[in-house]
Design goal:
Blueprint (H helix, E strand, L loop, with lengths): L1 E2 L22 H11 L4 E4 L6 H4 L7 E4 L3 H15 L3 E5 L1 H17 L4 E7 L16 H4 L6 E3 L7 H15 L2 E7 L20 E2 L5 H13 L3 E5 L6 H14 L3 E3 L15 E4 L4 H7 L5 E5 L20 E6 L2 H5 L5 E4 L2 H11 L28 H9 L7 E5 L4 H7 L8 E3 L7 H12 L5 E6 H4 L5 H7 L4 E7 L4 H9 L14 H7 L4 E4 L2 H11 L10 E6 L5
Parallel strand pairs: 2-3, 2-4, 4-5, 5-7, 6-7, 9-10, 9-12, 10-11, 12-13, 13-14, 15-16, 15-17, 17-18, 18-20, 19-20
Antiparallel strand pairs: 1-8
Helix pairs in contact: 1-6, 3-4, 3-14, 7-11, 8-11, 12-19, 14-16
Length: 553
């Protein structure tokens, strides 16, 4: 039995910090809830509606400042992913929430559990619509929060925040609570934080008859294949996926546009990454009469092209614990349940398949080292990283134009070994990498970023420097939106946008207090990586390298 709760034996106690008049306030009760749920690190960007909450925080709380709400929520998302439990975010009414909506969407799509408390004007004058009134704040982020609540009374705020923790944990996404600024000083109820259980015990299980039906379908197939996604990127998930793949002697593909690895990519059964094109996906899976998607939907597409996603006559099975992934999949059979457990149960039940292993995938040849003074290619950077990154590295990717080559050249060898934005919205990379580096003190965090992508949340570097996040950010500088340029060229023309060759990321980084270097020679690159990668997780703060790439790379 697993427990989705603050901790075994936790009980709710009276507040330890009484209000100004000695009476227990709503703020006191909220702070106790936050202690109980281990949310004493607050990620925020303050405004006047948050002053009653944030002034004179107790000594056991830490406030982490982000200079823009988008980068702030991205930092909190990385922190939550790294810890595997909800992070607490405080935003300023409509302006703050509005700035953060893109990152809240990213948190939802990247399975980042967040408790987001949004300030609001005092409810005693909301009818007059005073300055900084947030209109329908619970709707501003649309359907991206997994749960939203505006408490009916001030006294319901502590319970709403407690419930938000459970909702975020169970749905693996952002839960949002609106907190009118006058509520904090209201007297709390003696009964404590009503509205949420102190503990929730979850016993994730799968009925044996469901496994039996799925196993029978697999046994009837002659050539199964697996596709893995973010929902199986845990230690138990990797172990289960490996056990199932080896039992079936089946190739394993990474999800198209995958945001997490889900399988050891150095394993001989790893076949590479699916392409988003239906045609190319169909070609990759053409030899298989059964495709099993683990921890993801079937399938994630991009630009429309006609046709089926798998060959005629092939069946698709989906195993995921996210209902919306299951329900939107075109599949013969879908199992709603923990994929790690399903894999383990199937591996025990299925018979061992013998025969030759799947043919090894074709690998990109390494580019030869550039001549002295010759420009660098992305492959030079990725080969240098592959040869130097430790096995336990957490590699964040947000370099769209070179992403396919990075994923081909640098295998993820542990859970969380590869992380990327799940929905294509830029800005997640540098911010989430900062949060990951804050959360993981025993694993080095390296971010590979496009120069254009890094600009969407460049303010995160200030937080990385201020809170000494041991992060190495490598900016791949081609000084243009290369993906968009390529799409325009394939459409038969040129894009309406210019390049941005004058932008110098190192100057911006240093302005935010993050040390930075510009790299233009291969020997410089190798020397910098040899200096910075060993012991990176013990570094006292971030470092940024801007790697100048060949024009057009």
């Amino acid at each position: 039995m697993s427990e989705a709760s603050p901790g075994a034996g936790t009980t709710r106690t009276a507040a330890s910090s009484p209000g100004a008049a000695g009476a227990r306030t709503v703020r006191d009760a909220v702070l106790d809830v936050m202690r109980e749920y281990e949310m004493t690190r607050i990620f925020g960007n303050p405004g006047s509606t948050e002053i009653p909450f944030l002034t004179d925080l107790p000594a056991d709380f830490e406030f982490v400042l982000g200079l823009h709400e988008g980068s702030l929520v991205g930092i909190a998302s990385g922190y939550a992913i790294g810890r595997g439990r909800p992070a607490f975010v405080n935003l300023h009414t409509a302006p703050g929430l509005g700035n953060a909506v893109n990152a809240i969407a990213g948190a939802r799509d990247n399975r980042a559990p967040l408790v987001i408390v949004v300030g609001q004007q005092d409810r005693r004058q909301l009818a007059l619509s005073p300055f900084l009134t947030g209109r329908a704040l619970e709707k501003l982020a649309g359907e991206y929060p997994v749960w939203t609540e505006t408490p009916s009374r001030a006294q319901d705020l502590p319970g709403a925040i407690a419930r938000a923790w459970h909702e975020a944990s169970q749905a693996q996404g952002p839960a949002l609570v609106v907190a009118p600024m006058g509520d904090w000083d209201e007297p709390a109820e003696a009964e404590g934080a009503a509205g949420a259980p102190a503990r929730v015990l979850r016993a994730p299980s799968i009925a044996p008859e469901a496994i039996a039906e799925l196993a029978a379908l697999i046994e009837r197939s002659s050539s199964p294949a697996l596709v893995v996604g973010a929902g199986i990127d845990t230690r138990a998930g990797w172990d289960g996926a490996v056990a199932l793949a080896e039992r079936l002697n089946a190739p394993v593909w990474g999800q198209e546009f995958g945001s997490r690895a889900g399988f050891p990519q150095s394993h001989p059964l790893f076949a590479g990454h699916l392409h988003w094109s239906r045609r190319r996906m169909r070609e990759s899976l053409a030899e298989h009469d059964l495709v099993i998607a683990l921890g993801t939907s079937a399938f994630l597409l991009y630009i429309y092209d006609p046709g089926a996603m798998v060959a005629a006559g092939a069946s698709v099975v989906v195993i995921s614990d996210v209902p919306e992934e299951v329900n939107r999949s075109s599949a013969e059979l879908a199992l709603l349940g923990p994929p790690a457990l399903a894999c383990a149960m199937l591996a025990e039940r299925l018979s061992q398949r013998d025969g030759p292993p799947p043919k090894p995938r074709t690998r990109l040849p390494d580019p030869p080292p550039p001549a002295l003074g010759a420009p660098l290619l992305p492959g030079h950077v990725f080969v240098a990283l592959r040869e130097r990154l430790p096995e336990n590295v957490v590699l964040m990717e947000e370099s769209p134009s070179s992403r396919p080559e990075l994923m081909e050249r640098i295998p993820a060898r542990r859970p969380l070994g590869f992380i990327s934005g799940a929905n294509g919205a830029l800005g997640f990379g540098i911010s989430a990498a900062t949060g990951l580096a804050m959360a993981l003190d025993d694993r080095p965090v390296v971010a590979v970023l496009g120069d254009g992508a890094s600009l969407y949340s460049i303010q995160a570097l200030w937080s990385a420097a201020r809170y000494r996040a041991p992060l190495l950010a490598i900016v791949m500088a081609n000084h243009r939106y290369a993906v968009m340029d390529g799409l325009a060229e394939r459409a038969g023309g040129r894009g309406a946008w210019p390049d941005f060759a004058a932008v110098d990321i190192t100057v911006l980084a240093e302005g935010f207090g993050c040390p930075a270097r510009k790299i233009s020679e291969h020997a410089e690159l190798l020397a910098a990586l040899d200096e910075l990668l060993p012991g990176l997780e013990r570094r006292d703060g971030p470092m940024l390298l801007q790697v100048e790439l060949e024009a057009g790379a």
